[in-house]
Amino acid sequence: MSERGDESDRRISSSFGCGSGQRARKAGVLSNRRVIFTGGPGAGKTTLLDALAGHGYACVHDSARAIIQDRLRRGLSARPDPAEFATVTLRMDIERYRQAPTEADLVFFDRAIPDALCMLNDLGLLSMAEAGQSVLDFPYFRQVFVAPAWEEIYTTDNERDQRFAESVRVYRRASEWYGALGFELIELPRVSVEHRCEFVLQRLRVS
Fold it and tell me: To the nearest 10°, the Cα dihedral for 173, 176, 182, 183?
């Protein structure tokens, strides 16, 4: 890569707040018991996290949805332009990562930093090398639970305005992306939320 390309990569990483996780690792702040749920919208991730929170587990909800909710409250369009949306989502994901309780045995995330990195990569704003470095800087549990698109439970609301076909596309892209980053993918079964909780906790107990 050229020197100009290296400088561009460094500017991008700096503007997104990446590259500082190494100091946190040295300080013993981070834990790989941060467990991600990814997949398309409307596949039951939020419902699953709510159920796990009800069982006493620490949970971190979807940054993108929080951004949309805030914009709607302020009378704005649901989403800014794609580049701004991806950048703001990543910044919020990093902030929430750092704020996650380090004393908890397990912390569950409704999508996470790698999902925002995927958005930026799809826009041509982040290289695969940069994404890989960010995953090293902000490590998660290597097994990632993927919620498949599920038409029977799919609904839209003020914040989720995508058609079901978009849920299918996001699910496929998330699976491809996490696999490329070296995570082990575990597909969530299409069962009740309580059975999904049991499935997740059982898989983690034997990990």
Answer: 70
d(CA 132, CA 179): 12
Domains and CATH numbers, the chain: 3-205 (3.40.50.300)
Gap between the Cα atoms of 71 and 64, Å rounded: 11
Distance between CA atoms of residues 159 and 167, nearest Å: 14
What's the whole-number average pLDDT of the chain?
86
pTM here is 0.83
- pLDDT score, position 161: 73
- Of all residues in the chain, what percent carry a pLDDT higher than 90? 70
Strand order of the β-sheet with 184-187 is: 58-60, 107-110, 34-39, 143-147, 184-187
Q: What 3-state DSSP class applies to 62? A: coil
Residue 23: what pLDDT? Answer: 40
- Residue 178 CB coordination number (10 Å): 22
The number of C-alpha atoms within 13 Å of 156 and in the hemisphere containing its C-beta is 8
